[in-house]
Amino acid sequence: MPTILIVDDESIFRRGLEHMLAELSPDWTVSGTARDGVEALERMEACLPDVVITDIRMPRMDGIQLQSIIKEQYPRVRCIVMSGYSDFAYARESLKMGAKDYLMKPPEREELFGTLSKLKEEWLEESVRRQESAEGDREEKQVRLQLRQHILSSLVAGTVQEEELELLDRVGLSFPYPSWTCCVVHLDRDSVTAGRYSLADPSLFALFISQFVQELIPPRMRGEVFIAGDSKVVALLNHEAGEPEHEEVVRLAKRVCHQIRTLSSLTVTIGVGGAAGDLESAARSFAEAEMALLYRLVQGGDRVLAYEATAGHAGRKAELPGSDWRLLEEAVLEGRTADAGAAARQWAGELVSRSADPGAIQQQVCKTVLHFYEAAVRRDCVQAWLGAKEVKQVLAELCSISSRTELTEAFGGILGRLAAVLSSRRADAAVHPVDGVLAYIREHYAEPITLSGAAEKVYLNPSYLSTLFKSRLGVSFIEYLTNLRVEEAKKRLLYSREKIASIAEASGFSNIRHFNRVFKSATGLTPLEFRKEHRGEDPL
């Protein structure tokens, strides 16, 4: 992913901008911050940012001097200037020196997103150009691997864009089979002694696991394995459709667990998502694998946790005791806050009174919270529900309670808060989420649109929206958006005298080369050929 270095002498602004960037786009990573130009130059080599966002007036070295040195020493790094109205003369000087944009402080979210979208496109194009023109196999391979990692990460995160999908062949990604399954392999930290973990580079454990997984993938599958953290590896497996093939993925995961345990004394837990019928739905399979991994808290590590057998199992609700379960689920998911809290306390009280095993009570409480956590993930409201806490922390806090009264009250409070969040969301959502997305696309098709951005508009997780969208319309989000843009371009070609480049931009295509390629793929003709053939005159 492209990275950003933030330079400003006000710490509160640095923190605020870093928080805004994290919320605005998962495609950008803040690699570091600096208080002034001197500190920024000291961190350039370590951070290696793609973009520097800098203030102008700073002590020791101001933004003008910093940009001059960056332009000379790091010509590939883009600069964005942020400052106040009184600094406009300085900002104008920055733009003359090559700054990509000048934004007022504090920046508007939409304006910042627009600038970053343009820079991301430039970054992708430059990555491809560097790959094509790289001198020597080593540099070319490194660029390719970085872009490959970015595309794979975007695929499983549900943020991949159409232009990135067109780069698959260039970075050596090929998926010849009709089905995809995502596996997430997580190192069990308790299988590594504290001394062994601290003495070694933690990333080496993930490297070892990724290489191991890649070697065990059978020839009848196509697998792409990449590291997603010091202790997490993701495997995107492409295979034939059908239940037997998906079962083979689970058997592969079990072989990985067994072989790593046997050969290294390490243990891993593997979450296996459901099979996806198209590449865009791979994000759903990844989300399911991540969800399945959460059940490690209940079932323990050193095992394979398939989504269908944990969070996604249709019969799982029947395992939850008490006749009040149905009332509890309805109250929470329908957003009836008071009823949800009362039903949760009653359900927990009944659970405690029926079981004499504290461990069984803890497992059942964890399963129930994870069931509703899955619903919150689908509705993209986890942060609104849990705040800064992770669900692991919430479960650990519940499991530490030994008082019946405290447990029922805490459990009721947790589910009551979720019901309150869902109640607020229901009040905002007057139409079906897919209808809301369709209206958003039709209004903004000429602008940069992503699945994650559309999902945010209707308060849904991107992978869940992708599934809903295709189920409702029979085409993926990207296919619908592309078809709409092509149809709009056809109208303009036939009924206007606009130039081709203007039509491309007005129809939502990032550049004319991309427009020509997509249009010809959809119609069999280039835009010029289409205009000439259907208007019966020379193209304008």
Automatic annotation (TrEMBL):
From its record, what is one biological process in GO terms? phosphorelay signal transduction system
Q: Which residues carry this modification: 4-aspartylphosphate?
A: D55
Checking CDD domains in the record gives:
REC_YesN-like
Coiled coil regions in record: none
* Alphabetized UniProt keyword annotations: DNA-binding, Phosphoprotein, Transcription, Transcription regulation
Identify the residues that the record assigns to the Response regulatory domain, covering every copy: 3-120
GO MF annotation, one: sequence-specific DNA binding
Give the domain of life.
Answer: Bacteria
Please name the SUPFAM superfamilies in this protein's record. CheY-like, Homeodomain-like
Domain GGDEF: where?
A: 180-309
Q: Where is the HTH araC/xylS-type domain?
A: 435-533
InterPro entries in the cross-refs? CdaR_GGDEF, CheY-like_superfamily, GGDEF_dom, Homeodomain-like_sf, HTH_AraC, HTH_AraC-typ_CS, Sig_transdc_resp-reg_receiver
Q: Which residues form the signal peptide?
A: none
Which PANTHER family does this entry report, sorted A to Z? ARAC-FAMILY TRANSCRIPTIONAL REGULATOR, HTH-TYPE TRANSCRIPTIONAL REGULATOR EXSA
Full protein name: AraC family transcriptional regulator
